[in-house]
Design brief:
- By secondary structure, the chain is of the alpha/beta class.
- It has two domains: 3-161 and 303-364, Response regulator (Rossmann fold, 3-Layer(aba) Sandwich), CATH 3.40.50.2300; 164-294 and 377-397, Response regulator (Rossmann fold).
- The protein has 13 helices and 14 strands.
- A seven-stranded mixed beta sheet has the order 7-6-8-9-10-13-14. A five-stranded parallel beta sheet has the order 2-1-3-4-5, with helices on both faces. It has a two-stranded antiparallel ribbon with strand order 11-12.
- The longest helix has 23 residues, at 3-25.
Length: 399
């Protein structure tokens, strides 16, 4: 049996197990499947693309609604073009739950969508991507950054931003070179995303002359818990110079509040899972001064994105936020394939693999593993209770 054949049998088994788990949990959790058509009725030549992410649940604004709205804007604008093949947008609400992802991925296959923007989370990508691969559905994530997703030899997987192999070293570099931290507590939420990012930071610290005094190999919190006192006490006792957390804003805001209440005042940094204004809603004044990174720039500060920002505000009565612009770009790359005459999954995939698209965030060009070429890591900080972009990490730390 070839290595690839063995991998596929393992992936099929994993998907089957996950499907059982998803079915077992269906009595407790509502699984949203499809939404309405975007941009009016679909004409005879119309096709369907999907958005796959969290539209309900604790992290839905950031890794769901923000992105879905970027995709919806792109589809609406496409459908208004004269003579355009009409495209309907089908929404798959994963709630950020890997147990639900296989069931939703199979639903997308049966719905005959020709492309997917997403999945939005790394954990759900891990179990849904093999299903899309087997079905021949090109999928382009605008936010899943786990650095192993591209290692399976998939032909239909694509990622529209830099992965954690770029973000984690930038996080560590900022802590050590900019904040002069030598002793760092590294915490995560044990998710594919959070632990993957934290492990990358742990690895990068030693090369920078710094030490993880808490979480050298692992220190995880349960993001569903309300009391993080065990971890907070460990951090307080270790007296680190700074703290790094790999996880999402719903729990990082609570963790920060408990740290500050316990008298831990050292700098706090987290990754893109926490880079959202909602972290302030959760943690309040305790989040002031917190540093957050993302492989994404704030489109509201970029003159090149002015038209997108105006269109987004008009459509959704608010500014685009994290990953709205990335989702808009990857959706437009898929729509460019449709405009070229590609209306099947295989044809769209060929277009994505052999062309580039100049978006508002970057020029999208995928390598042989589906990774985008180029991309920077941006540092943000909570200032006066507002998440504010500081700049590119390499520029802030001097290379």
């Amino acid at each position: 049996m070839s290595h690839r054949a063995a991998w596929w049998r393992g992936a099929a088994a994993l998907a089957a197990v996950a499907l059982v788990l998803g079915a077992c949990s269906s009595s407790k959790k509502k699984v949203a499947t499809t939404g309405g058509t975007t941009g009016g009725a679909t004409n005879a030549a119309g096709i369907k693309i999907g958005f796959f992410g969290s539209l309900t649940g604790p992290n839905s604004p950031q890794l769901g609604i923000n992105e879905r709205d970027g995709v919806k804007l792109a589809v609406d604008q496409h459908n208004k073009k004269s003579g355009a093949t009409q495209v309907s947008l089908v929404e798959y609400d994963s709630q950020g739950d890997p147990a639900q992802a296989p069931q939703l991925a199979q639903k997308a296959v049966s719905d005959k969508v020709v492309a997917i923007v997403g999945p939005a989370f790394s954990g759900e990508s891990k179990v849904a991507d093999p299903i899309f691969e087997q079905a021949g559905i090109p999928n382009v994530t605008a936010s899943a950054t786990n650095a192993t997703l591209q290692t399976h030899g998939f032909k239909y997987f694509h990622r529209g931003l830099a992965n954690d192999d770029a973000q984690a070293p930038a996080d560590a570099k900022f802590l050590v070179k900019k904040l002069n931290a030598k002793k760092i507590a590294v915490i995560d939420d044990a998710s594919d995303y959070g632990k993957g990012l934290a492990d990358g930071v742990r690895k990068a610290l030693s090369g920078l002359g710094a030490t993880a005094v808490v979480g050298a190999t692992a220190e995880s919190i349960d993001p569903k818990a309300q009391d993080f006192s065990s971890t907070v006490n460990k951090i307080n006792a270790a007296k680190p110079d700074a703290i790094f957390y790999g996880g999402y804003y719903a729990d990082s805001g609570r963790l920060l509040k408990q740290l500050r209440d316990a008298g831990v005042k050292v700098p706090f940094e987290s990754g893109d899972g926490s880079e959202d204004q909602k972290i302030v809603d959760v943690g309040g004044q305790a989040t002031e001064g917190a540093y957050l990174t993302c492989a994404c720039a704030d489109p509201t500060t970029d003159p090149k994105a002015a038209s997108f920002v105006t269109g987004y505000k008009s459509a959704f009565n608010g500014n685009p936020a994290i990953y709205s612009a990335e989702a808009y770009d990857v959706a437009n790359f898929i729509l460019a394939a449709v405009e070229s005459g590609a209306t099947t999954g295989a044809a769209i995939n060929t277009y994505l693999n052999t062309n580039s698209y100049t978006g508002i965030t970057k020029t999208l060009k995928f390598d042989s593993t589906g990774e985008v070429t180029g991309g920077s890591i941006y540092e943000y900080q909570v200032k006066s209770q507002k998440v504010t972009q500081l700049g590119v990490v390499d520029q802030l730390v001097g290379g």
